[in-house]
Amino acid sequence: MASMVERYGWAVLIGLLITFAIPWFLWGDSRTAFGLPLWLWWHVGWMLLAAVAFRLFARRAWGLWIVESEGETA
Amino acid sequence: MSVPLQLGIVVGYLFVALGVGLAAYRVTERAAEDFYLASRTFGTVVLLFTVFATLLSAFTFFGGPDTAYAFGPEWILVMGLMDGIVFAVLWYVVGYKQWLLGQRHGYITLGELLGDRFGSRAIRALVAGVSLFWLFPYVMLQQIGAGGALAALTDGALPFAGGAALITGFMIVYVVLAGMRGIAWTDTLQGAFMLLMVWTALLWVLAAVDGGVGTINAGLAASNPEFLALGSDFYTPGTMLTFAVSIAFGVAMFPQVNQRFFAAGSEGVLKRSFALWPVLVLLLFVPAFLLGTWARGLGLEANIGAGESILPVILAEYTPPWFAALVVAGAIAAMMSSSDSMLLSGSSYFTRDLYRPLVDDSISERREDRLGRIGVVVFATAALAASVWAEAEAFGAVTVGSVLVEIGDLAFGGFAQLTLPVVVALYWRRTTAAGLAAGIVVPQAVYLAFNFLPETAAGPIVLFSDAYLGWGISIYCMLLGLATTVAVSSVTTPSPDANVDGHFGLRAD
């Protein structure tokens, strides 16, 4: 059974992944690195990070909020 | 020289697809579950690519790079948020739950699932009816795109109607024969092919440009310095979020995507594909949209406003004709892989959720299978007729590119209105049939009114505008749908026929 910390932790993590998929703090920034805008590198890194986070979720918490475990209602 | 070559490659591609379809026909059982869902047997690669190829309409190859060419590459971030993250989350929240329910109760369509959940044939028909309402113009869009592409490819030797009819006829034969299994197999081939093409194109251009990316960026800095900076008058935070959220939520309810939630072979397949979404999005959209952006830095010209696309221009400039032809074949493949899946799903919504419950519920598996195939023919032919009519009447002067983006986005927004009420129905026991029905009908009506009625000033506010405070109307309608579902459910009582226990307290597979 997922602990409270895990239940809310995953929701917060997914919320963060959504919130910073667009790097708001680079708004108006036109610096480039290796030929591409910095914000595009952020995108590359963020997508990879999201893939790792989703993989972890699938391994450790799959079924959270959906399947019943020990008397919780789904 | 390059026109026969391009046509040859396109026709060659069609025959390869037909071969795959025939192979699938040989192993297909004559039953609706197999025709529509390949008997729920998809593995990770096939499921991921069939959903992905289905999502990629002509937009990836033409509309997307054109947008990047015209407004800058920020659309990459919209796609990342939309398909890489928000859709992946919906893949879990909507998809996994639907899959579990499909395993338990044998559902084939979303309407069937909800109809059973609420013990209501009206709900079933409503979900199918609303879905078909948006799906039909979207199929037309693909046909208009294909007809236009073939007409452009042959310099008008094959007129628009002829091209659209050719592609539609081919798809009918193909879908009727192959069913879901064949479509998924060709989708997998097409998806892999598209990835390969778009990266090869990007590297090719990079290698062919003297001075590489340095030259390109210098050109950009001179012509469009705003392209490298994040954000612009076009890309405001409200616009980017409106697009990302309403398209991602819309995708989850598109029949051909939603139905694939049922088709996964196992829970492991869903888990693996869930984690691969952001990677696939990264691999495909970054190169496609960079090509459009770079074309701007290289000083290439395409009159987007007059219906030209930038991708063929940059390919013609830096790659050999055979390669450009392969990419055009890839683009037509993308249109077809979206349309064939839409035809199949459209047919299943019609036969299972409208014809069966409302006309004749006693038909055999075999008859339903045949009826499904007839449904494909009817749906495709009607959409073709409407496309040819629309092209002749209305689209003559308007650009194919902008029409693609506009109607496409309207359909996505229309489907997006379904998502939140459906999520409420999936997760909240107290949801009632009346609540869901109101939650579907009200935002649809408002969304349509605000998109199609002329703007009207009513005192200090303007009615029927398509955006308020920088946010698109679809976002407001989605929230309205959520509120309506919850509010109406709270004041109505659930039907005694509702199958609540069958939908909650699920166990993992």
From TrEMBL, chain A:
<feature type="transmembrane region" description="Helical">
    <location>
        <begin position="7"/>
        <end position="27"/>
    </location>
</feature>
<keyword id="KW-0472">Membrane</keyword>
<dbReference type="InterPro" id="IPR021741">
    <property type="entry name" value="DUF3311"/>
</dbReference>
<keyword id="KW-1133">Transmembrane helix</keyword>
<feature type="transmembrane region" description="Helical">
    <location>
        <begin position="39"/>
        <end position="58"/>
    </location>
</feature>
<dbReference type="Pfam" id="PF11755">
    <property type="entry name" value="DUF3311"/>
</dbReference>
<protein>
    <submittedName>
        <fullName>DUF3311 domain-containing protein</fullName>
    </submittedName>
</protein>
<keyword id="KW-0812">Transmembrane</keyword>
Automatic annotation (TrEMBL), chain B:
<feature type="transmembrane region" description="Helical">
    <location>
        <begin position="160"/>
        <end position="180"/>
    </location>
</feature>
<dbReference type="GO" id="GO:0006814">
    <property type="term" value="P:sodium ion transport"/>
</dbReference>
<comment type="similarity">
    <text>Belongs to the sodium:solute symporter (SSF) (TC 2.A.21) family.</text>
</comment>
<dbReference type="GO" id="GO:0015293">
    <property type="term" value="F:symporter activity"/>
</dbReference>
<feature type="transmembrane region" description="Helical">
    <location>
        <begin position="234"/>
        <end position="254"/>
    </location>
</feature>
<keyword id="KW-0813">Transport</keyword>
<dbReference type="InterPro" id="IPR050277">
    <property type="entry name" value="Sodium:Solute_Symporter"/>
</dbReference>
<feature type="transmembrane region" description="Helical">
    <location>
        <begin position="192"/>
        <end position="214"/>
    </location>
</feature>
<keyword id="KW-0915">Sodium</keyword>
<dbReference type="InterPro" id="IPR001734">
    <property type="entry name" value="Na/solute_symporter"/>
</dbReference>
<feature type="transmembrane region" description="Helical">
    <location>
        <begin position="371"/>
        <end position="390"/>
    </location>
</feature>
<feature type="transmembrane region" description="Helical">
    <location>
        <begin position="37"/>
        <end position="63"/>
    </location>
</feature>
<keyword id="KW-0769">Symport</keyword>
<keyword id="KW-1133">Transmembrane helix</keyword>
<feature type="transmembrane region" description="Helical">
    <location>
        <begin position="75"/>
        <end position="94"/>
    </location>
</feature>
<feature type="transmembrane region" description="Helical">
    <location>
        <begin position="468"/>
        <end position="488"/>
    </location>
</feature>
<keyword id="KW-0472">Membrane</keyword>
<protein>
    <submittedName>
        <fullName>Sodium:solute symporter family protein</fullName>
    </submittedName>
</protein>
<dbReference type="Pfam" id="PF00474">
    <property type="entry name" value="SSF"/>
</dbReference>
<keyword id="KW-0739">Sodium transport</keyword>
<dbReference type="InterPro" id="IPR038377">
    <property type="entry name" value="Na/Glc_symporter_sf"/>
</dbReference>
<keyword id="KW-0812">Transmembrane</keyword>
